[in-house]
Specification:
The protein is mostly helical and 328 residues long. It contains 14 helices and five strands. The strands form two sheets. It has a three-stranded parallel β-sheet. Strand 1, helix 1 and strand 2 form a beta-alpha-beta unit. The chain is elongated, with a radius of gyration of 22 Å.
């Protein structure tokens, strides 16, 4: 019996960090055991906001290839590929743009939100406006049943479903299934300064960070701002470091750290020492794989190039159906 198909990807707009691992990659690794998975590196999508400086796009593609494999994605279980090596994505995007009403794109919530948030770049471009439609092409060209997303991305999947319905109705043929969002629970993961972990805030722990760099970053993490001195009691509920303990430490360790913090029985450095040790233990398999691929980056790229050929074969089959439906 054929397995249901999953599609997801990451933009090659920077080096992956712990938020990417916990919010997406680990979930993808689990899903490849149950679903037919297609995971890609979205290098074209990186241009929607980063078109003015493309000097590092190839470097970031390679970093993502290394981190996909280091995190546990398996080319024997998933199709791993690079978006720009499957030009059929662009062809489908073009054809979909002929049938998609402009107001549909303008009402996508992230369109206005990102224009307001990203003030240092000119986002008044067709590519930025059309981002959700290219994303739709990415999904439906593989006839994906499921797209793992956080709650904020659900409107994008609903947009894709609307486009699918319009295409199927216009051409009187069910070429595409309607993709469904598969909600993923993203753990709360603050950055080093207490804000959301983000490359744009420069407050991240990267998957490429060495154990020494990770340990040093943990030592500099913001803690409960009310705890000014070693003898002051703290509140773990408002401490970003404790959010990491919830992920990486045992229940017993969390209880000890919480009690020690509230009574000033331990200092913040003691708390962070326990955390960094647990993080390094959890990340050891990833770090070991990453050292190998970092020393042999072409090996990682070869895996993605081979996967791109697999993906393209599927995409070409779909495009044959699309052209037949549209009589072109």
């Amino acid at each position: 019996m054929a397995r249901e198909r999953v599609l997801s990807g990451m933009r090659s707009s920077g080096k992956p960090h712990l938020g990417n691992l916990l919010g997406a990659l680990q979930n993808w690794v689990h899903m490849q055991e149950t679903y037919e998975c297609f995971y890609f590196i979205a290098d074209w999508h990186a241009l929607t906001t980063g078109y003015a400086d493309t000097t590092q796009v190839r470097e970031y593609v390679q970093e993502l290839a290394i981190d996909y494999l280091s995190a546990g994605l398996d080319p024997d279980k998933s199709v791993l590929f690079i978006q720009s090596l499957v030009p059929e994505h662009a062809e489908l995007h073009l054809l979909l743009s002929m049938i998609t009403p402009l107001p549909w794109l303008e009402r996508v919530p992230t369109f206005k939100e990102q224009q307001q948030e990203i003030k240092d770049r000119d986002l008044a471009t067709y590519g930025f406006l059309g981002y959700p439609l290219l994303q739709t092409a990415d999904i439906i060209i593989y006839k994906a049943n499921w797209v793992p997303v956080g709650l904020d991305q659900v409107p994008h999947i609903e947009f894709s479903r609307e486009v699918v319905r319009r295409f199927n109705n216009l051409y009187h043929v069910e070429v595409f299934p309607e993709p469904q969002p598969k909600l993923t629970e993203v753990p709360k993961l603050p950055g080093l300064d207490g804000r959301k972990m983000s490359k744009s805030y420069d407050n991240t722990i990267y998957l490429s960070d060495s154990p020494e760099t990770l340990t040093q970053k943990v030592r500099t993490m913001m803690t409960d701002p009310a705890r000014q001195r070693r003898r002051d009691p703290g509140n773990p509920d408002v401490c970003p470091v404790f959010d990491f303990h919830r992920i990486y430490s045992t229940a017993e360790e969390r209880a000890e750290v919480s009690q020690g913090c509230r009574t000033a029985g331990i200092g913040c450095i003691d708390c962070k020492t326990v955390l960094s040790r647990n993080m390094l233990t959890a990340l050891q398999p990833l770090h070991e794989k990453r050292r190998h691929y970092a020393a042999h980056p072409q090996e990682a790229m070869d895996v993605l190039i081979a996967g791109s050929a697999q993906a393209r074969a599927v995409a070409q089959e779909t495009m044959a159906e699309v052209r037949e439906a549209m009589h072109i």
